[in-house]
Amino acid sequence: MSDTPAPPELTHFVAGQPRMVDVTGKAATHREASAEAWVVLPPEARAALESGTNKKGDPLMVARLAGLAGSKRTADLITLCHPIPVTGAQVDVSLEPGGVHIVATVRTQAPTGVEMEALTAVTVAALNVYDMLKAASKAIEIQGVRLLSKSGGKSGDYRRSD
Fold first, then answer.
1. What pLDDT is stored for residue 2 in this prediction?
2. Share of the chain above pLDDT 70, in %
3. How far, in Å, CA of 33 to CA of 157, rounded?
4. pLDDT for the residue numbered 119
5. DSSP letter at 114?
6. How far apart are CA 102 and CA 91, in angstroms?
């Protein structure tokens, strides 16, 4: 007899085959999730951002708008993700000493959560920062994409503790 706990059930697989989880019988409840990402900028990319001379526009504003759009298009990008109504989304993008910090919070009233929408929002925003600044440096790095918190649903609330 082993003291090793059984691995958690992966709901997107049945008998080893991928599937979209059936949420037909689940009640629509208020759900919210927040995620973050960092875009680490080499000195030349940071200087280009701070100069305000990007011909494409303000990289932080473009990233904010792209993150909002990304939150609404998640089901088009994540294969087994349900299309859900995004009832609210906020994407904050700021220039910090460590680079560009992106935080997204997404809300819905649905039978499934919005973690993937929050994670997609910060990732799409980060990719747009890269796109806007890649002429200054190809060494830009996207790091630390992670879920910060989620609330609602059968699995309950989660808050990252570190």
1. 62
2. 91
3. 10
4. 98
5. -
6. 7
116 labeled binding residue: yes
State the Cα–Cα distance between residues 28 and 42, nearest whole angstrom: 44
Closest CA to 57 of 152, 133, 146: 133
Q: Does 141 belong to an annotated binding site?
A: no
Band (3; pLDDT cuts 50, 70, 90): confident
pLDDT of 8 > 70? The answer is no
pTM of the model: 0.88
Q: Are 93 and 99 in contact (CB under 8 A)?
A: no
Across 119-129, average pLDDT: 98
Q: Which of 90, 99, 98, 91 is nearest to 49 (CA)?
A: 99
Sign of CA dihedral 98, 143, 75, 156: negative
61 is in an annotated binding site: no
Cβ neighbour number for residue 97 with a 10 Å cutoff: 6
Coil, helix or strand at residue 124? helix
80 is in an annotated binding site: yes
DSSP letter for each residue of 61-81: HHHHHHHHHHHHTHHHHSTTP
Residues that are catalytic:
131
Domains annotated for the chain, with CATH where assigned, are: 28-154 (3.30.70.640)
Cβ atoms of 86 and 106 closer than 8 Å: yes
